[in-house]
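Pipeline run #58 for the internal structure catalog. This entry was flagged by the ingest filter as a single-chain record with no existing model, so it goes straight to prediction. Upstream metadata was stripped on purpose; only the residue string is passed forward. Reviewer on rotation: M.T. Logging verbosity set to normal.
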Amino acid sequence: MHSAVKDVVENQMTLMSASKKHGVSKSALQRKVKKFKLANEEHEENTNDFEFGRSHGFKLIFTSAEKQLLSEYIIEACEMCYGLTLLNTRELAYKKQNIETYKKMAANEESLTNNEQEERENENFKAKTDDLTKEIKSKQKVFDESLRNNKNNLKKLQETHEKKVNKAKEKADKFKEKIAREHSKNNELEVKIKKLKEELYYSNKSLKKKNHEIAELDKEVKQQNREIKFKQKFVDKTENANIYLKKQYEGKLNEVEIDAETMRKHLKEHLKAKYLKLRNIKNFESQISKLENAISNKLKQENHKQTENLSEQANGKINKNSALNLDLQEYEKSFKELSQKVEKQIGYLQTQDMQKRELNALGKQNLTLERIEVQKIGIHDPVFKENYEKALKVHLPSTSSTNSPVTPSTSCMDSTVPSALNLDSNQEDTESNEHSGGGEILMWSSRKPLSTDVQATTYLLELRKEMSNQFDDRKHSKNTLWQQIAKKLNEKNFFVGQGLEGAEKCRKKFANLQASYVKYKDKKKGTGEGYICKPPFYDELDEILGFKDKITPQLLIDSTDKLIITEKKSVDKENKAIPHKKRHYMNCHPLQIQKQIMKKINLLVSDPLQSPKTNIHYSKK
């Protein structure tokens, strides 16, 4: 507010501009300015303002008493310093007033002369303006005439321009038609170029494959020659070992035949005892069911009698009712005891069935392991393989199905045990098959890949190749596609699992194969790697993944016709690589394996009913 009042008083700003600038209301500012002006007028009447030096820059207002004292001090100072009296000071004051009036008169004269000069200049300016107006009017007439001429010229130019534009449009339409034809020709040429590029890419790819295959075949030939030399040396060694083994095993085979006969007898006795136990249990169950029916009938009769007795003899026959209650309690106790015994025997029978199933499964697993080992040895020692098969045929005769593995529990069933026992055993076999998933073995679960595993992987890759378009399309969910593949594998008797479990197993298997394929591709590109072995199922995976940009990047042709290959080393998110399982193999000499197999046969002959976990021990090195 103070700064706004100051601006208005010093005539620097108006009331409106000061109120807008300082954000003050106009009426309040007007009141403050009036008060300030009245105060200044009163002070001018009563007091004089004294200006201090340059450092101060403001005015101090004195009171009347102070002013009288100061005037007295000034007069005394003038008398003391300059010898001036009051008359001298009055004369000086009048002189000062005369000088000021003279200055005012001179200023007024100067202003009058300036005004006269301004009037003369104004008259000259009026004369000049009259002359200019005449010139402007004359020029305006000329300009109007030129405008009319220009309009006529413009009309003529527009007509000629329209004719030229129409001709240009016709030419442009012709050029557009030519450009469209050339554009279509260019598109056809681009399509042909793309086809030629693809043919060139695939031809280069096939050439590289053939060259690589030729190099690999040369290396394989060299390796096979080395293996043949090594096998010849090994055959020479094994011939000497076989001569020694024939002499050694001739006596043992006779012992094995004798032990097998004793084992058959033990098995017959054991199976007869089990058959009798089963028959007793069935009789016992029928007796229990009869007792339950009899007890329920008795309870109904007694309840009916109680209601009749209570209605007839409500007064004073409490002893009879108490006796009946005691009888009922005894019946209930006996019934509970019988039911507990039955439950115990059922549990005991269930445990026996489970043990039978486990024994059968373990026997099958051990025989499959033995046969695999015998097949390995049979490659180098066919004589030992023949002896082993003869021993199995003699000591463990097979059932009607030749392909199913033979176990001691099913070998001697037909000759001694009656038909009822055979039916029970068949039921047990079917139950065991149902328990183990219909007798199906999970694929890719063994440490060493079997022939069924290889067939399952080839079929999996075929299905993945057929459904590659669906996998590339984002509309289809990948989980459902893997579930379909797992379902088809299960239908082809390659049991993988059901639902999400089977789908996850198939996905992991494909991811592992893809990881090995990509690793081989990356190593092949690197320098200084030497010879790299091809991963399994390389060609099938190349048909599925070879055309993808992530595995084999596209060839981009520059303007200078130079081939630039863009490399990308990334794998699909759907198929994240899973680390391979570490395989542990036994490194054994064939003589040691033969000894181990003979020990297993002797153990089976001596005590076939024990679990093979306690009997058979593998010597791992």
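catalog note: Confidence is low (pLDDT under 50) at residues 47-59, 394-439, 555-590, 607-621.
catalog note: The radius of gyration is 62 Å.
status: ready for reviewer M.T.
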